[in-house]
Amino acid sequence: MSSTLFRTKKVEQSILDTEEPEHALKKSLSALDLTVFGVGVIIGTGIFVLTGTVAKNNAGPATALAFVAAGVACALAALCYAEFASTVPVAGSAYTFSYASLGELPAWIIGWDLVLEFALGTAVVAVGWSGYIQSLMDNAGWAMPAALGSREGSDVFGFDILAAALVLVLTGILVLGMKLSARITSLVVAIKVTVVLVVIIAGAFLIKGENYDPFIPKEQPVEAGASLDSPLIQLMFGWAPSNFGVMGIFTAASVVFFAFIGFDVVATAAEETRNPQRDMPRGILGSLLICTALYVAVSIVVTGMQHYSRLSVDAPLADAFKATGHPWYAGFISFGAAVGLTTVCMILLLGQTRVFFAMSRDGLLPRFFSRVHPRFRTPHRPTILLGVVIAVLAGFTPLTELAALVNIGTLFAFVVVAIGVLVLRRTRPDLHRAFRTPWVPLIPILSVCASLWLMINLPAETWVRFGIWMAAGFVVYFLYGRTHSRLAKGEETRPEQTL
């Protein structure tokens, strides 16, 4: 039993599978496309919202340091992802990497988790986008009927048609091809980054030095109901992280970390990259570096414009401009957030369909979904299926319920990928690695520790939900995946051939 649960798929075999005509994706992406994808998914509402939340509740002006700390934690994981993506340039990201290093069951666990995470994450973003669009429409005097708009805080039963429509449109774009998706993403990212840069430059002229005093608050009361302490830490260790001082910076880092999540989605496009050995590390690390710089700059500006104790937690940037007598920027920021969320939604949907496609090609999910479109060379079947399901989910489910999704699964994937680097270095030292994670085993070990630290900062109920979903995954695997796996059936293609 244990030998079948932890059977690994050879790297050479994974690469050979990408050459099967019916299951081969079109290679059309460059390093620039990958970097744009990374920036497109990382820069979202987090840059406009989380800054004020953690500044007011935890770190004050030192929020910039929290972003740096979170960026470093992500960089540790990104270095591990870069090695795997350049060594195993196959769709599926952490799922594929786990299959090559740790075995089938760990790979299934990661894939099962990421499919849910990306799916619900897409729905959350779509509902958030709908809210921004409806706000802009209200400002213009066009009120959306209650039955067709967002139901947050409303007793009216309805269908959020804007959220569902966005998902369906993006589904169609993804079916039509990766290059079209990359072009649209490039245009939207250019608009989004321009908005962020304008906010940074304009806000820089409104900074008051006294707002940075104190830079690291020693005591800052947290508003009722806004505590970010982890019940899990209190349960396990009998203490909770401080909401102020130096520990407040690390508590803030565990929160703003989730604004960075998305760079790992870039790895799901490895199979569709023209030169993955060279371009995947550039795309992953480049997008992370750009976004870290933007996050730090925004946090410095907003805490300099308005004292951290007076920042709002819902729209800190927009409200900071209002407080300084520049209300026009509030609408400008809302426009930038609405435009930017379209790429976040698209790339999350892209990542989710690629993980599903990879699992299907390996037989852990029905092979029906692993056939690509004869013209567009995209995994159209899982894209359409998942797009419709997510559209319905986004249309009917209130944001408060969707927002229960947390990123524990992504952190878990970071842990597995870092461990996988260590395992594959030991079991397959002969593999050609176009990019090598530096300072092994130090970097992977630090990545594991950083991810685990952030995981235990999550609420206890998050772990409960994670456990329930994982339990369901085990049932599906043992009832279907274990016996239908291509490795179980001995269907490896040309196993004697190596690259």
Descriptive report:
The model is unreliable at 221-242 and 493-499 (pLDDT under 50). The chain is built from 20 helices and no strands. The chain starts with a helix and ends in a 10-residue tail after the last helix. It has helices spanning 2-5, 11-17, 31-42, 46-59, 63-87, 94-101, 104-139, 161-176, 178-204, 231-237, 245-256, 276-305, 316-323, 328-361, 380-396, 399-402, 408-427, 442-456, 460-484, 486-489.
Q: What's this entry about, in short?
A:
With 499 residues, this protein is mainly α.
Structural descriptors:
20 helices, mainly alpha, single chain, 499 residues
Number of helices: 20
What amount of the residues lies in strands? under 5%
Helix content: 55-70%
Radius of gyration: 22 Å
What is the H/E order? HHHHHHHHHHHHHHHHHHHH
Which of globular, elongated, flat, extended, rod-shaped describes the shape? globular
Provide the residue-averaged pLDDT. 83
Largest beta-sheet characterization = none
- Strands, total number: 0
Q: Uncertain segments of ≥5 residues (pLDDT<50)? A: 221-242, 493-499
- Quickly give the structural class: mainly alpha
Distance between the termini: 30 Å
Helix/strand layout:
Blueprint: H1 2-5, H2 11-17, H3 31-42, H4 46-59, H5 63-87, H6 94-101, H7 104-139, H8 161-176, H9 178-204, H10 231-237, H11 245-256, H12 276-305, H13 316-323, H14 328-361, H15 380-396, H16 399-402, H17 408-427, H18 442-456, H19 460-484, H20 486-489
Helix pairs in contact: 3-9, 3-12, 3-14, 4-11, 4-12, 5-11, 5-12, 5-17, 5-18, 6-7, 6-17, 7-8, 7-14, 7-15, 7-17, 7-19, 8-14, 8-15, 9-12, 9-14, 13-14, 14-15, 17-18
